């Protein structure tokens, strides 16, 4: 088996009033990994921990040999993470947002944007600022950015929420094509397994 993209060992994390993970070890290979779990099981928190945006109480995370603890900046630079709760990009219009992602990811492939915008029915929205978009449209913008970014590790929290069926089909098709790239890993957090997406593995956090 090839070396995993991300190696996690001994990860422990608790909020003051609730322990979520204790001594969790896992490998994330290329392809699609599903983090499955019911309400409040810790899907979002786990993605934030993998992204290096929240700090665990214990554990080691190594992304293609880069250790989060000792090389945090280099580690985080390889990760595209949907920041749906962030307001940091709200004042940007869609092309400005894509330009900001392009600046952050050297492997960003801008030639893919027209097809992604069309496939996700974003054309009527491209001149809008992000705060003007519905949650579903904003999610589509993040997804388009993820597919163009070329990041090593891609963390997609609830990628289908609020999407119309045509866009869901498009995301499934695009994700399945991206999953064939042995240099990239895709982690998706959902309540239940997605239809039509072959999974490299499932991490079940319970109902
Ligand atoms: N900042 C926080 N401080 C304290 N507790 C938190 C915080 N964020 C989340 N929690 C709690 O931790 C648990 C896991 O939350 P998290 O959002 O990671 O779960 P989730 O599986 O993504 O849930 P959902 O599907 O409902 O979004 C929940 O019980 C939540 O209430």
Automatic annotation (TrEMBL):
<keyword id="KW-0547">Nucleotide-binding</keyword>
<dbReference type="Pfam" id="PF00005">
    <property type="entry name" value="ABC_tran"/>
</dbReference>
<keyword id="KW-0067">ATP-binding</keyword>
<dbReference type="InterPro" id="IPR003439">
    <property type="entry name" value="ABC_transporter-like_ATP-bd"/>
</dbReference>
<dbReference type="InterPro" id="IPR051782">
    <property type="entry name" value="ABC_Transporter_VariousFunc"/>
</dbReference>
<dbReference type="InterPro" id="IPR027417">
    <property type="entry name" value="P-loop_NTPase"/>
</dbReference>
<keyword id="KW-0813">Transport</keyword>
<feature type="domain" description="ABC transporter">
    <location>
        <begin position="6"/>
        <end position="203"/>
    </location>
</feature>
<dbReference type="GO" id="GO:0005524">
    <property type="term" value="F:ATP binding"/>
</dbReference>
<protein>
    <submittedName>
        <fullName>ATP-binding cassette domain-containing protein</fullName>
    </submittedName>
</protein>
């Amino acid at each position: 088996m090839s070396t995993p993209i991300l190696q996690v060992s001994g990860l422990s994390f608790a909020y003051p009033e609730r322990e979520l993970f204790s001594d969790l070890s896992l490998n994330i290979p290329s392809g699609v990994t599903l983090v499955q779990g019911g309400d409040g099981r810790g899907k979002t928190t786990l993605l934030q921990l993998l992204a290096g945006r929240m700090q665990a109480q214990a554990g080691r995370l190594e992304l293609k040999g880069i250790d989060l603890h000792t090389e945090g900046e280099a580690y985080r630079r390889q990760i595209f993470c949907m920041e749906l709760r962030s307001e940091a990009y709200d004042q940007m219009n869609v092309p400005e947002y894509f330009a900001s992602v392009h600046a952050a990811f050297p492997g960003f492939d801008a030639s893919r944007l027209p097809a992604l915008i069309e496939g996700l029915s974003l054309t009527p929205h491209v001149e809008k600022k992000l705060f003007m978009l519905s949650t579903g449209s904003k999610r589509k913008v993040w997804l388009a950015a993820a597919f163009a970014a070329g990041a090593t590790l891609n963390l997609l929290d609830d990628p289908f929420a609020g999407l119309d069926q045509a866009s869901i089909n498009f995301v499934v098709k695009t994700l399945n094509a991206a999953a064939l790239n042995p240099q990239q890993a895709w982690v998706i957090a959902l309540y239940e397994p997605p239809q039509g997406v072959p999974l490299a593995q499932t991490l079940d956090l319970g109902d």
